Amino acid sequence: MAQALQAGTVLELADVSKSFGAVVALRSSSLTVEAGSIHALIGENGAGKSTLIKIVAGVHRRDAGTFRFQGQDVDFTSTSESKAAGIAVIYQEPTLFPDLSVTENIFMGRQPVGRGRRIDYTAMYAEAEALFTRLGVYIDPRRPARGLSIADQQIIEIAKAISLDAALLIMDEPTAALSGVEVERLFAVARSLRDEGRGLVFISHRFEEVFDLCDTVTVMRDGSYVSTKKIADTDVDSLVAEMVGREVSELFPKTPAEIGEVVLDVQGLTTAGVFHDVSFQVRAGEIVGLAGLVGAGRSEIARAVFGVDRYDAGSVQLLGESVPARNPRAAIKAGMAFVPEDRRKQGLVTEESVARNVAGVIRHGLTTAGLLTGRAENRAAGPWAGRLEVKTNALDMHATTMSGGNQQKVVIAKWLATEPKLLIIDEPTRGIDVGTKSEVHRLLSDLAGQGLAILMISSELPEVLGMADRVLVVCEGRITADIDRADATPENVMRAATNAANPAASKEVVA
Amino acid sequence: MSADVQPSAVSPASRVLRNLLRSRELAVLIVIVVLVAVTTIKNDAFLFGSTGWRDLLLTPSMLVLLAVGQTCVLVTRNVDLSVGSTLGLTAYLTGRLFIDTNLPIVLVVLAGVLMGAALGLVNGVLVAWGRVPALVITLGTMYIYRGAFLTWAGSDRINSSDMPGAFKDLGTESILGIPVLTIVAVLVLALVGYYLRTARGGRELYAIGSDPDAAELYGLKVSRRILAAFVLSGALAGLAGVVSAARFGTVSSSVGTGVEFEAVGAAVIGGVAIFGGSGTVWGAALGAFLLVTINRALPVLGISDFWQQAVVGALIVGAIILDRFLVSRQEKALVAARDTGPGSTSPGAPALAPVVPSTSGSSPESSPESSPESRPESSTESEEVTR
Predict the structure, then answer these.
(1) What is the pLDDT of residue A45?
(2) Which of A1, A192, A233, B183 is the most buried (most CB within 10 A)?
(3) C-beta atoms of A272 and B332 within 8 A
(4) Is the pTM of the predicted complex or chain greater than 0.80?
(5) Which among A109, A235, A504 is the nearest to B219, CB-wise?
């Protein structure tokens, strides 16, 4: 299975571009990885890092550009091709088979076989245990993958990638869910792989890790290549400047609004294994940002508040009235609105017209003698769509043909038609191109100015810092920081999100 | 630490025993034993009569074949509703070949299996490459195959006298007290069970059903595997058609009607998850055995015909509810285990970190010069305590 390791350049990407419909994910990006090197790839969320590595992995195919692996032009059309060529990828979000054992998850498709091509389970379990020992973790190789924490799932992904014995190992934020000890172990493994002459690509938002582990760094911004430098020749400030390339305040024009009474009051919200003792308030005219890493439990908290998911303990109050659990209908009635993360799946009926979508929630108020007419829908939807500057030629245009930004506006319009007191919005600008992003931001800012309380979940740090009056940071299902707008910086938010500045915690656990 | 994240300290023997005791297969087997025992006490001809023992083993063999094929499709998160029609077509083909040609019995059996495989191939191609849900595709082919059967057979029917005696003997003969057709079914069961457990292709079927998107990312040959599962299901339905012709000696145009639902029901009762990813052919076969035996036992026990269907239905619904309950309980236990025991990785309960403005201005912890040794000492400390 071992592949001959060549010295020199392992991976060479030049001027690679990729579009998904109208959204340009990659304009012109380049990346050159040498053998025996750990190469950091950094950039803001949405800079195109994940798209780039998915091209390398064979998930997507590039539209244009050069792609060489071990000196040869390649064009992978499937993940099995890239795997066979010697590329292992650890994705940001683990992809495991919940019904199968962790060992089977590691070796699926290339299990050790003995006589008669029969899977050698003894050898397979032994190899899995050896991998876990190498990674310094204790996981029963026979347990199912179902119910593993994100961190443990990530360990399985890493074990899988290592067992591939690949010439190029790509890690897309592998440390996002790991604690300090595990990060150290992962780094030790990464260094030993580097010393064996393999090439590694490491994507991370934590600069300390980049400087600790990597020897070269490439910066990306807005789908384009910015620069490649030796780690020794650069520092955090210049990297940040290259990543951002603009002032944060330009993009996120939150205007100060008068902060009013408490609208949402959440106390002691708990769901076993997901989040714990979550308490916070949102006031009228205030935008509260819910920051944290992917998988920290932010969306789950929002879903519980809105009544989509159940919770074990705690209370939710809106304007002093308690909101029943597990009842989104009551939440809407009480004055909550919820714009979900995946608007195509959960927020829009994409095959329906704009008017239908906007009028969807307030349908009951529009009926004449129990019948709903298209005219009534158009009449109700018109002002809202106009106010949000939804760029559609007609209200009966289908939502599916619109751009991401306009779709998002339709979803927001839909909820505004219910005249809510509180708007919960999950990743308001995900998948929206940079130009339209600021329109969504201006809209949210205006709405707050009119006295709406907004709870905004966002993984984009600049968005949180630019938009939120207050930042709540969630880490492993707990609120670990409550930071005012004036005090919020990328560093202290990131630290609370990764819990890096809290070494006492890891000691408490083992004690 | 909780037992779930520890390397297993239990001996292999006790682990096998524990898994066996928890398995659905054993539970179904116990129900079967109890059912047979109770029925035999009521009327000892059920087991000890002149044909009791033979019928007990012989009757389920056809459904066992179908349930085995159905399981292979179900674990991939698909379903094959066309097996009843396939069975009817191949049963009729068997009869026609005996009437119209002088082919030896072996070739006729082979023709039936190949015909079933071809019909399964059609399903597989449409599902794997047409990207249409199997429920819809096989519902459609169920009617198409049945329609083709009716057109071909017309008002014709195959009678016992049309088929050679040697062939019909297969349906009644026994070897060492075990009917031949039962031996055939058990052989197929063992082969498929062995394949699903120990071959890469078999395990990939489970992986595909467990998470189709992840299977694509793993680079598994999803379409090819799904196709193979449908071909196997069709081939086994074809074999079941031959078995049906041998066992009953006649083939009418209604043969196999509704049997596809019995096959799905048998698999579900035997612990095969309807959404794919788990379950064994052993369980499905036991489920088939139970389903058939219940239908035969209830009249003996004096329960009216009207209630038989309801009992079968209750069994299926009960099995599905039990599955949901067990899965959600297991999931909850595994998730809750992350809170209580410090698992291998959970950083546990971090206290609310007070963020003071003064720290916000400071630079990130590690500067470029910092060596690995100057990492926060806490990590090495807690590592020691963990050991």
Answers:
(1) 65
(2) B183
(3) yes
(4) no
(5) A109
